[in-house]
Specification:
The structure is a single chain. This protein has 372 residues and is of the alpha/beta class. The protein folds into two domains: 179 residues, Rossmann fold, CATH 3.40.50; 171 residues, Rossmann fold, CATH 3.40.50. 42% of the residues lie in helices and 17% in strands. The chain has 14 helices and 13 strands. The strands form two sheets. Strands 3-2-1-4-5-6-7 form a seven-stranded parallel beta sheet, sandwiched between helices. A six-stranded parallel beta sheet has the order 10-9-8-11-12-13, with helices on both faces. Strand 9, helix 9 and strand 10 form a beta-alpha-beta unit. Helix 3 crosses helix 4, helix 4 packs parallel to helix 5 and helix 8 packs across helix 12. The chain is globular, with a radius of gyration of 21 Å. The relative contact order is 0.12.
């Protein structure tokens, strides 16, 4: 099948959130070469009347976006609706971003002869779904793994090496950089200038390890009462985490600040960034923190070690060891000059290896390769 330019691509994402994966999709749609690619998005319609967060951002950026409630579940109707969209919009290439989305793309490959590419961002829905997904991905034209551990899973399942591409997530290093602290955000969060601020951002769900962060915060707060922890994000664990905060006596030391739509300002507000995750791919949140020269303490999971080199561009600790996490935070509190040094090194690493322009060019070459 020869490509006709511009190649018509649809990104498929069954999500109503606007997290790291959705940011990646939006960046791909906005930044790929418009002479060679025309990008659109196919996503979920929330069950209630709320707008899909990804579609809101896409519409603001003038990117074609189709919301469909059928994408929320598997059915004959969901497949028929999706295939009709592929046909009506002359889609040549599907780029899917998840387990359910990969299955939908597979139907299009065999029923509409559409080329299909998937990005593996991670598996958090259990071993059965992971096993099914690995089987489905063997039928794709190309598979992008954002972290080495994901690529290893694909290789072990017998995939041809030349169909699996290890391509990391990326960040706009011109947008995310060190700048003056936003006084309006500081006022909104009711912060004075005397506190050392430790921050994190992510979905409040079990795999993100926020419960371990609270245990670490207890140790840090007992030794450093001038430290405050800001937790940005929303998710199913929020009420339990708030209760645990009170149970640990951390009500004055930990603040849940919700979803932050301006992460540049949030990251420049904090002094130290912490990632306590139990499972990850290559988290965009760490790339953003590194690009803004924040000193980072992170758990050594997934592809985090690609960005954070302990003692060089941050501090790495084993997952599920909150007291080691606390020690890393306290090391940066005690030696702020060292923190500034590793923060600068972290930015240099991101600029050199994870910049948006560089990685998107690589992904464009993957798109073109499936038609060769």
């Amino acid at each position: 099948m020869a490509a006709s330019f511009p190649i018509s691509i649809v990104h498929v994402r069954a999500s109503t959130d606007f997290g790291s994966v959705e940011k990646i999709i939006l960046s791909l749609c906005r930044k790929v070469d418009s002479n060679h690619f025309h990008s659109s998005i196919y996503t979920s319609q929330p069950a209630d009347t709320a707008a899909n967060a990804l579609s809101v951002q896409a519409n603001s950026a003038r990117i074609q976006c189709q919301c469909n409630s059928y994408l929320n579940r598997f059915s004959v109707e969901s497949i028929k609706t999706f295939l009709k969209y592929i046909e009506d919009n002359d889609i040549q290439l599907i780029h899917s971003h998840g387990y359910r989305e990969n299955i939908m793309a597979l139907f299009a490959k065999y029923l509409k002869r559409t080329k299909i590419v998937a990005t593996v961002h991670g598996w958090t829905a259990g071993q059965l779904r992971k096993a099914i997904d690995l089987r489905v991905l063997r039928c794709f034209d190309r598979v992008i793994a954002v972290a080495p551990n994901f690529a290893d899973n694909l290789y072990r399942k017998g995939d041809q090496v030349d169909r699996v591409d290890l391509i990391p997530n990326f960040v706009d290093v011109n947008e995310f950089q060190k700048k003056h602290v936003s006084t309006s955000l500081k006022a909104k969060l009711k912060l004075d200038g005397t506190k050392i601020i430790v921050g994190t951002a992510g979905r409040l769900s079990p795999e993100k390890g926020m419960s371990d962060l609270l245990i670490a915060a207890k140790q840090v707060a007992s030794n450093h009462p001038d430290v405050i922890f800001l937790i940005a994000g929303e998710g199913p664990e929020e009420s339990d985490l708030r209760k645990k905060t009170i149970d640990l006596g951390l009500a004055s030391s930990v603040s849940f600040v919700g979803y932050q739509d301006n992460m540049v300002d949030f990251l420049n507000l904090i002094d130290i960034y912490v990632s306590p995750s139990l499972s990850e791919g290559l988290p965009r949140s760490i790339l953003e923190a590194a690009a803004t020269e924040r000193p980072i303490v992170a758990t050594d999971v997934g592809g985090v070690g690609q960005i954070v080199k302990s003692g060089d561009t941050g501090i790495l600790v084993p997952a599920k060891h909150p007291f080691l996490l606390a020690e890393g935070i306290e090391q940066l509190i005690a030696d702020q000059q060292y923190g500034s040094k590793i923060g600068r090194r972290a930015r240099n690493r991101v600029v050199g290896e994870f910049s948006e322009d560089t990685i998107i060019e690589i992904i464009e070459s993957v798109y073109e390769s499936v038609f060769n």
